[in-house]
Specification:
With 261 residues, the chain is mostly helical. It is 87% helix and 0% strand. It folds into two domains: 33 residues; 211 residues, no CATH class.
Length: 261
């Protein structure tokens, strides 16, 4: 019995691995199909602009609030840590580099997946559940071009813009703590930050935010497009979108950070 149980467990693990590989292959094929429809989608730019508004502008409240509090926490923790070494005037450097290279892109992508990604997935899933996508196919209208591609492009464009806003608000929050509360001179705060932050640091954050935006948008539209046409199926697809996006963002963050270093 023990040998049979081990064989059964081994076969189960193998089936799970095959399912994971099949899922990766399906997402890759869907990405190729989606990329092929992105350029024709640009013939109707107002569709992309509308999705940038839905995914970006409607996420500004949570982005600004989160950026402010993250920056304030960085100011407090950075001041407490640097004070032990007599370098508390470098709070601005720590906050700026931490936000631009790491926290800004990652937290923005996670917030985007939780707010806009779930909205994209549920919207496309409900369209599939109510046979709107099937009706478009019956009328010889490609739903990938007219429904999925604009949302995918809107997410790719919105995430870097949101990350930039997150970084600016976060630096302001760190300045609010460091200069206003801790008494660091404003000139020292900003001059050290300007001398320390280089163009390659900004490029690293930009590339990360674009990659994270593409990953989160791809998973959201994929799960919504392939969701089961039931209320339970749409709910499960939304849950998978958040979990998969969070894991993929952290994995890509490690890969990109290692590549830049």
């Amino acid at each position: 019995m023990r040998a049979a149980d081990r064989v059964g467990a081994l076969l189960q693990h193998r089936w799970k691995a095959l399912d994971a590989l099949a899922k990766i292959g399906a997402v890759s094929l869907f990405l190729l199909r989606l990329l092929g429809q992105c350029i024709p989608c640009l013939a109707r730019p107002w569709l992309v602009v509308q999705q940038i508004y839905n995914a970006g502008a409607r996420s500004l409240v949570i982005i600004t609030l989160s950026g402010l509090f993250v920056g304030m926490v960085l100011g407090l923790q950075g001041y407490d840590l640097l004070q032990r070494f007599g370098s508390e005037s470098a709070v601005g450097v720590v906050a700026a580099l931490g936000l631009i290279k790491e926290l800004g892109p990652v937290l923005t992508a996670l917030l985007f997946a939780g707010r806009a990604g779930t909205a994209l997935c549920s919207e496309i899933g409900l369209m599939a559940a109510t046979d709107q996508l099937a009706a478009m196919e019956m009328m010889a209208v490609d739903p990938v071009r007219h429904v999925v591609a604009p949302r995918f492009l809107g997410g790719i464009i919105a995430v870097p813009l949101l990350a930039a806003i997150f970084n600016c608000i976060g630096i302001y929050g760190a300045q609010l703590i460091g200069v206003t509360m801790m008494g660091i001179q404003s000139g020292t705060f900003w001059s050290q930050m300007q001398n320390a932050v280089q163009l390659r640091d900004v490029n690293e954050g930009l590339i990360k935010s674009v990659a994270f935006g593409a990953a989160c948008s791809l998973l959201a539209v994929y799960e919504g497009y392939h969701a089961e046409p039931t209320a339970e199926g749409v709910g499960l697809a939304t849950t998978r979108t958040v979990v998969s996006s969070a894991v993929l963002v952290l994995l890509l963050d490690y890969i990109l950070t290692a590549a830049f270093l």
